[in-house]
Amino acid sequence: MQAKPLLALVGALALTTLTSCSNAGLLSRRPAATNLGLLAAEQRRDPALSGDGRLLASIIQRGGKSTVVLQEQPGGRQLALKHLRSHQPHRSPALSWNGRYLAVLIQQGQHPIAVIEDRLRGTLLRLPPLGDAMPEALSLAPDGRRLALQVVQGGQQRVQVFDLTGLLEADPPAGRP
Amino acid sequence: MISPAATATTELTWRELAWRRQARQVALATAGAVLGLGLSGCMGATPVPMGGLNRQLEQAGNNRNPSLAGRWLALINGRGGRDQVLLLDLDQQRPVPVPGLNRPDALPISVSVDVSGDRIVLIRQLEGRSELVLYRRSLQSLQPIAMAPPAVPVAVQLRADGRELALQVSRDGLWQVDLIQLP
């Protein structure tokens, strides 16, 4: 008669052990919102999460062109980008804390340039070309105050950092000024 | 011989010329000032290179794969035939130690830092295999991150708060993106 409570106790202990093991494990993986609204089997690269984790930018092949897409996480609902529907190939997207700013490399003529779409104001900031230095990748600081560009110049890979404080309002974490 | 009338006319002309010259100089100076102000206004609307830092980076050799978060810049630096991860404090404009992160027999592929500068995720090639690791600077610990189903990690970006990472992998011949929660 007392077997049931004993079994329940053992079961609870086992469950607790499993849960704690799972928490002690390093990771829980979930696929990005590939299957939601976009083809599961398509190629996707250059992922970038917003600081709060609610948005994911990545590069997919659309009509044969590498194009940046922005999706909510979780769920995968795709969000419209006002200025980033052309000038492919796109490369190396980066998002600010709340996803207000999306920085990405686009193609302008023969050269890639860095641009930043302000999703709040609907504006696009184009960073001027850097002479013969070809941008290859970028990183936007989560608060939007700095931008780092990886460029190739004279066969050398270099990183240049720019101060954007005069150009962009800060995009701080929620609850901070 | 110059007549008095002609002399008066000449003086007038010289005075007029001098006045015109002065007026032109004032106009040029004004235009220069206006242009200067305009240019400085435009300069305010362009990104300002962080000169001192950029010079330091240039002197440090080849640099790639920058990752900015808060006051931190992580990147992969190549010098003397060896690639290694550098973590720079942008406020101090100098590298900070990352003991245990770099190995002479490992080739760093992709790196990303969180806003606290404590967590660094790294893809590196070691003994011919690519692996994903999490480095905790405060603990000086390096922990491998498994990928299931198995895949080859290609590029990584750590969320600013360090709680999640976005990973580009090669799996079954496709580029895919995994999101991995970190404790």
Q: So, the CATH homologous superfamily of the largest domain in chain B? A: TolB, C-terminal domain
Helix percent band of chain A: 10-25%
**Total strand count of chain B, please?**
12
Architecture of chain A in CATH? 6 Propeller
Total domains of chain B = 2
The share of residues in extended strands of chain A comes to 35-45%
The rounded distance between the terminal residues' Cα atoms of chain A is 62 Å
| CATH class category name of chain A | Mainly Beta
Largest sheet of chain B: 4 strands, antiparallel
What portion of residues of chain B is helical?
A: 25-40%
User: What is the count of DSSP helices of chain B, taking H or I runs of 4+ residues?
Assistant: 2
- The proportion of residues in beta strands of chain B is 35-45%
Task: List low-confidence stretches of chain A.
Answer: 9-26, 33-39
- What is the CATH T-level topology of the largest domain in chain B? Neuraminidase
Output the strand order for the largest sheet of chain B: 2-3-4-5
What does this structure look like?
Chain A has 177 residues and is mainly beta. Chain A has one domain (33-163): Neuraminidase, CATH 2.120.10. Helices cover 12% and strands 43% of the residues of chain A. In chain A, the strands form three sheets. Chain A has a four-stranded antiparallel β-sheet with strand order 2-3-4-5, with no helix packed on it. In chain A, strands 6-7-8-9 form a four-stranded antiparallel β-sheet, with no helix packed on it. In chain A, strand 10 (134-140) and strand 11 (146-153) form a beta hairpin. The radius of gyration of chain A is 22 Å and the shape is globular. Chain A starts with a helix and ends in a 14-residue tail after the last strand. Chain B is α+β, with helices and mostly antiparallel strands and 183 residues long. Chain B has two domains: 1-48; 51-181, 6 Propeller (Neuraminidase). Chain B has a four-stranded antiparallel β-sheet with strand order 2-3-4-5, covered by helices on one side. The termini of chain B are far apart. Classes of the chains: A mainly beta (177), B alpha+beta (183). The interface between A and B is large, with 55 and 53 residues. Strand 12 (156-163) of chain A pairs antiparallel with strand 1 (48-49) of chain B, so a sheet runs across the interface.
